[in-house]
């Protein structure tokens, strides 16, 4: 993680077609259902879970850097300016104040915590916290799907936050078995869920979405019900995760929740 943060700051200062699964025969273009045109569902929480899917603590997260009590290595301070450019002036448990380093990419920030346990993001980052809980957030680069697509190498392997994007159904694959009247839905279909800045924007960049367990977010089922069996209901969301330039460009999701 130290290397990743170092790369992040260096970059900042200098500055989804899916293959069919085995046995699947047809690939239909992304963003459209069989009846044509994007279809956006009501944006409620994912049907398989009420709270947002979250991988838990960030990859390098641990307890706060100190317990709030100054030690021999702390630098007393009275204002943030005295700690610049490497940190800020944080309250301690004893009632004094001491310089503390900025939190880096993916690290914890904010939340409903005691003043001496607070963490602040480095100036080039924002604290991406939850809109439905008071839990700490994570430090990320604030960006959009379009910006990621247009400067993918700049953002590669960085923690990024998407404050407003839409989840749509991308490429769809179905088997081609001949169905009988007794079994009219004999084929299996799956569609990859992807992120886009604006629903209906023709040719808008797409972002593949990978769940914390490493699997792709999908809608999957038989040819009659696959559109109603989605791991995320298509609609407006916000999320943060680690960006991979690909191809395809991918957001490895750490937290995703419906946008209200």
Percent helix, as a range, is under 10%
Instruction: Give the tally of β-strands.
Output: 13
Task: Tell me what portion of residues adopts beta-strand conformation.
Answer: 25-35%
The major beta sheet can be summarized as: 5 strands, mixed, barrel
Strands side by side in the biggest sheet: 8-9-10-13-12
Supply the number of helical segments: 3
Low-confidence stretches: 1-73
What is the residue-averaged pLDDT?
77
Report the C-alpha radius of gyration, rounded. 22 Å
| Intertermini distance | 32 Å
The backbone outline, from C-alpha atoms, is elongated
N-to-C series of helices and strands: HEEEEEEEHHEEEEEE
Report on the structure:
The chain is mainly β. The chain has a domain at 2-59 and 137-258. 8% of the residues lie in helices and 31% in strands. The protein contains three helices and 13 strands; from the N terminus they run αβββββββααββββββ. The model is unreliable at 1-73 (pLDDT under 50).
Give descriptors for this structure.
260 residues, 8% helix, two-stranded antiparallel ribbon, 3 helices, disordered N terminus, mainly beta, 31% strand, 13 strands, five-stranded mixed β-barrel
